[in-house]
Design a protein that fits this description.
Layout lengths: L1 E8 L3 H10 L6 E7 L7 E3 L2 E3 L4 E10 L4 H16 L6 E7 L17
Antiparallel strand pairs: 1-5, 1-6, 2-5, 3-4
Helix pairs in contact: 1-2
């Protein structure tokens, strides 16, 4: 089992969600986050160009069985690069081991709970 954490641009969420559903991944968690990386975004505030410290993004958390790691990553990659051509600041995918998963309703554990 793995936990995939993807940081994507806000405007990419719909394309990524649709790509994940098409790939058979329907259980995701999203949250609004802010961060700063290599992107060089500028905003106009009261007539002056301002470089914000933190850029708003979306964080996706997806728990998958080992067989679905590549499928999930490819769906996210294809959706994000198709939308913006792979610009600087498009985001990242982190893959971490998932030690245990427990479904609260039934008490199921492990890969069956995902």
């Amino acid at each position: 089992m793995k936990l995939l954490i993807a940081i994507i641009r806000e405007n990419q969420l719909d394309q990524v969600r649709e790509a994940l559903i098409d790939a058979g991944i329907s259980r995701i968690t999203t949250s609004h986050v802010s961060g700063h990386g290599r992107s060089k975004t500028e905003e106009i505030y009261r007539g002056q160009v301002v470089v914000p410290n933190l850029v708003p993004n979306i964080r996706l958390e997806i728990a998958v069985n080992d067989d679905f790691v590549e499928t999930t990553c490819n769906a996210i990659l294809n959706a994000t690069t198709a939308h913006d051509g792979g610009l600087v600041g498009s985001g990242k995918i982190f893959i971490t081991p998932l030690e245990q998963c427990i479904r609260l309703r039934t008490g199921e554990r492990g890969p069956e709970a995902i």
